[in-house]
Structures are given as structure tokens and as C-alpha cells.
């Protein structure tokens, strides 16, 4: 997941540089928005994974059935 995030960040960075130079092609502004959405979802998944992992390692975090 972190590799995917890094790839998306790099792509967004390239597109934002093009935008600063007014060189965006058709659809690239929309792609920036899509990347931002994908990054939000990816980081959310990472946070949830880390929270689950952290909670499962804490003593007493298991719930009685």
C-alpha cells in the first residue's frame, strides 16, 4: 500500500508542476482530483490497518466472548 501511495504522490507532483506551467492536457485536472481521492482512501486504509495491529498487540485488548 505504501508503494502505491508513493506512486500516486509522484504522479500528483508531476501533474501539479505541469499545472504551475499551464501545461495540463485534457483530463489531467480531473486526474489530480482522482489521485487526491485515491490518496485519501489509501491513507485511511493504512491508518485502519495500523490501528488494528496496534490494538491487537496491546495486553488486555481482546474482548471476552
Summarize this structure briefly.
This protein has helices at 2-20, 28-57. The chain has 65 residues and is an all-alpha fold. Helix 1 (2-20) runs antiparallel to helix 2.
Please name the defining characteristics of this protein.
mainly alpha
Any overview of this molecule?
It is a single chain. This protein is mainly alpha-helical. It has one domain. 75% of the residues lie in helices and 0% in strands. It contains two helices and no strands. The chain has helices at residues 2-20, 28-57. Helix 1 runs antiparallel to helix 2. The radius of gyration is 18 Å and the shape is elongated.
Total beta-strand segments:
0
Radius of gyration: 18 Å
How much of the sequence lies in strands comes to: under 5%
Low-pLDDT residue intervals, each spanning 5 or more residues: none
SSE layout and pairing:
Blueprint: H1 2-20, H2 28-57
Amino acid at each position: 500500500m505504501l508503494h502505491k501511495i508513493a506512486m500516486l504522490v509522484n504522479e500528483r507532483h508531476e501533474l501539479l508542476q505541469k499545472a504551475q506551467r499551464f501545461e495540463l492536457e485534457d483530463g489531467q485536472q480531473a486526474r489530480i482530483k482522482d489521485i487526491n481521492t485515491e490518496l485519501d482512501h489509501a491513507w485511511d486504509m493504512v491508518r485502519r490497518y495500523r490501528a488494528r495491529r496496534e490494538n491487537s498487540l496491546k495486553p488486555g485488548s481482546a474482548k471476552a466472548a
